[in-house]
Design goal:
The chain has one helix and five strands. The chain is mainly β. It has a domain of 48 residues. A five-stranded antiparallel beta sheet has the order 4-3-2-1-5. The longest helix is centred in the middle third of the chain and has 6 residues.
Length: 87
């Protein structure tokens, strides 16, 4: 059970499942916690649900940006070689 309030930007791991997720937003006034799973899905928990989860803070995964759709370059550095400049 998690007694601590979640921190936005912090990665957590489900102890039983091994899944990791990042807290996107935590609003104690509204009593909700918004998280994004490593696969990109988002979930919302009430603070009561959060406290019942068996989670602990963890380090961010090595390739965490792919799941959050964050990248510096759209084409991943590849070049199109079958099109001429005139096209």
């Amino acid at each position: 059970m998690s007694k601590r309030l979640p921190e936005a930007g912090q990665w957590y791991q489900h102890l039983g499942k091994g899944q990791v997720f990042c807290v996107i937003d935590s609003d104690p006034a509204d009593m909700v916690v918004l998280v994004q799973n490593f696969d990109g899905d988002t979930e919302e928990f009430t603070l009561r649900q959060w406290r019942e989860l068996e989670v602990e803070p963890c380090a961010q995964p090595e390739n965490w940006s792919g799941s959050l759709d964050i990248a510096d370059r759209d084409d991943l550095g590849t070049r199109i070689s079958d099109t001429s400049r005139a096209d």
